[in-house]
Amino acid sequence: MTILIPVLGDQLSHELASLRDIRPSDAVVLLMEVRDEATYVRHHKRKIALIFSAMRHFAEELRVKGWHVDYISIDDADSSGSFTGEVQRAVDRHRPTSIRIVEPGEWRVKLMIDGWAKRFKLPVDVLDNDRFICGILEFQTWAQARNDLVMEFFYRDMRRKTGLLMDADGKPEGGEWNFDKDNRAPPKRGLNYPEPMYFQPDAMTQQVLALVEDRFSGHFGSLDKFSLPVTAGQARRALAHFVRTALPDFGTYQDAMVMGQDWLYHSWLSPALNLGLLTPIEVAQAAADAYATGNVPLNAAEGFIRQIIGWREYVRGYYWLEMPEVGNANALEAVRPLPEFYWSGETDMLCLSDAVRNTRDNSYAHHIQRLMVLGNFAMLAGVRPQDVADWFLVVYADAYEWVELPNVIGMSQHADGGRLATKPYAGGGAYINRMSDYCGKCHYDVKKKTGPDACPFNALYWDFLARHERRFRRNRRMVQIYANWDRMKPEMRDAYRASAAIFLRTLEPAAEGWAR
Ligand code: FAD
Ligand code: DLZ
Ligand code: SF4
Predict the structure, then answer these.
(1) Contact 497/469 with Cβ under 8 angstroms?
(2) Residue among 211, 213, 10 nearest 101 (CA)
(3) Which of 58, 78, 198, 369 makes a 20 to 30 Å CA pair with 498?
(4) Residue 386 in this model has a pLDDT that exceeds 80
(5) 3-state secondary structure 302-326
(6) Domain formed by 341-504, architecture
(7) Do residues 314 and 159 make contact, with C-beta atoms less than 8 angstroms apart?
(8) Which residue, judged by its Cα, is nearest atom 38 of ligand 1?
């Protein structure tokens, strides 16, 4: 009996369900670096290097544990270039009696796997990905019982399920579920920003960096100073470092943006988490333990744990609930192509150029840069949501469709018509000015409302609300905003709209073929 166990590039966990309850001598583990996965969108170079290096390290660790690993590298001359082609070749080589795989993270890959049993005439056992706290069916049951998918209620269920930050009576620690009222302060002068933990590339990673630079030279992004964790051991050290140095201030400055400060108090753990080097429960538990020992305040621990067991689990459930339709959703009928500056960074809008720089250099931008700068601009400007989704999938080291698509289509572009977020995350220059130090150094004047030197976010914001008045005016959470619009003099409203139209005409579209 030989069981073939394909392990996909984002399944690099020793706790993986397909590696459990089985003797290594009964199995062949297949890891595949394949052209199609590296190029179905033109991923950031750093993301490809991270995945290949982590896969290679994982294969070595499995071998040390006694597994027979069949590793297909990207420069294998006989490679078919696809998952299905490589499984076919492995079936021919090893003549397995069955295939065993953990459910994948993407709809596209699920469709491939669905075809394997017929194609290979073998039983294919697809196991639940139980590294997530909430199963796909469990989320569907939760969603079916409700009209609205309110994340906060889902999160409370996950707190009850895990027992994280729950007291002995089953009540939330500190008497409340959510401490955001203590969070989200603007940055202030004199703050010290902790450095994340950097990992010097070893020989294996250096080899991968050279290979990626050579084979994917036309892809976006820089490989300079590559320092991401590529093993579970490194990722655990990065987690401990974050908990010690940054978590105490995570909640308070969660929404802040500071020029040139790429991580602030964020964890930068998403690449390792999404590859499987860390499990969500161990990350959340580390924050809960730091609170229990008095090293981290409750607003920080709770805010961080909510991102992991709340938002992260919720968007994954939403993805599998709403696919495939959500991939094409475009409720606001946005048709503009992605502007070129999302690649070049060449814009006088400093908040945007700094976010693109961080993205190019590190394959990273923190949540508020993604949501309230890059995403907000695209939505206000009416950029096609599928263009925006492709861009986000390409550029971030943590981007896999299950997590990227809900965040783009649902949270940031409101393209699902409000299924994920009841109100669009739209903001003018005043929001960015309050939460960052960008505006004082920007070419544009954030206090000016219209005209060539006014902050473009101001006119775009009101133009967006005017364009979508029929949809949003009745939204209970937007009544006040439309009351302000109604109070405006008609000349002012016209000036906003004219200013937005003039600005939008200056946007250069990105060259064709940038993503796919
Ligand atoms: P921290 O701020 O330290 O947060 C801790 C962890 O919480 C993250 O590592 C992440 O695992 C989780 N988390 C926080 N917010 C979310 C969220 N909204 N959805 C899912 N997990 C969350 N996250 C991805 O992992 N991959 C993506 O492709 C991705 N695309 C995004 C696109 C847009 C438009 C937006 C608005 C958000 C996106 N996010 C994505 C969510 C979030 O921005 C990133 O998880 C976060 O910036 C990662 O950096 P960090 O590890 O420093 O996060
Ligand atoms: C994103 C990616 C890349 C760039 N390369 C590979 C690869 O060569 N081999 C692999 O197994 N996975 C890769 N991935 C991740 C997949 O595209 C995909 O996101 C997941 O396998 C879905 O679960
Ligand atoms: Fe961004 Fe406007 Fe501020 Fe410039 S003035 S940094 S464009 S918000």
Answers:
(1) no
(2) 10
(3) 369
(4) yes
(5) HHHHHHHHHHHHHHHHHHHHHCCHH
(6) Orthogonal Bundle (1.10)
(7) no
(8) 407
Those residues with Cβ within 8 angstroms of residue 505's Cβ, 6 or more apart along the chain or in another chain: none
Q: Which ligand is nearest to the CA of 369?
A: 1
Residue 373 in contact with ligand 1 by CB distance below 6 A: no
The average pLDDT across 460-470 equals: 98
d(Cα 259, Cα 276) in Å, to the nearest integer? Answer: 31
**pLDDT band for position 183 (cuts 50, 70, 90):** confident
**Ligand with smallest separation from the Cα of 52:** 2
Pocket test for ligand 3, best of 257, 442, 447, 460 (most atoms within 8 A of CB): 442
Q: Which ligand is nearest to the CA of 275?
A: 2
25 contact partners, CB below 8 Å, separation of at least 6: 66, 68
Question: What is the 270 CA–ligand 1 centroid distance (Å)?
Answer: 6
* Bridge partners, 125 (sequence order): 100
Which of 16, 44, 51 is the best mutation target for the ligand 2 pocket, counting ligand atoms within 8 Å of the beta carbon and taking the most? 51
Is residue 167 packed enough to be buried (19+ CB in 10 Å), middle (13-18) or exposed (0-12)? exposed
Please give the structure tokens belonging to residue 455.
Answer: 């902050």
Which token pair is 28? Answer: 């062949």
Could you tell me what percent of the chain has a pLDDT over 70? 100
Band (355; pLDDT cuts 50, 70, 90): very high
455 close to ligand 3 (CB < 6 Angstrom): yes
Rounded mean pLDDT of 406-419?
Answer: 97
CA distances from 60 to 31, 64, 71 (A): 11, 6, 10
Q: What does the pLDDT read at residue 127?
A: 98
Minimum-distance ligand 3 atom for the alpha carbon of 429: 8
Domain 3-127 shares a fold with domain 136-196+246-322: no
pLDDT at res. 322: 97
311 token code pair: 């938002």
CATH 3.50.50.60 at 3-127, yes or no: no
- Distance from residue 162's CA to the centre of ligand 2 (Å): 29
Domain residue limits, the chain: 3-127, 136-196+246-322, 341-504
How far, in Å, CA of 149 to CA of 130, rounded? 22
444 lines ligand 3 (CB under 6 A): yes
Pocket mutation for ligand 2, best pick of 37, 136, 319, 320 (most atoms within 8 Å of C-beta) = 37
Q: Which residues contact residue 332 at a Cβ distance below 8 angstroms, ignoring those fewer than 6 apart?
A: 379, 382, 385, 413, 414, 415, 468, 471
Residue 182 confidence (pLDDT) = 79
In the chain, what is the greatest distance between 2 CA atoms, to the nearest angstrom?
79
76 or 192, higher pLDDT = 76
Give the pLDDT confidence of 367-380 residue by residue, as tens digits.
Answer: 999 999 999 999 99
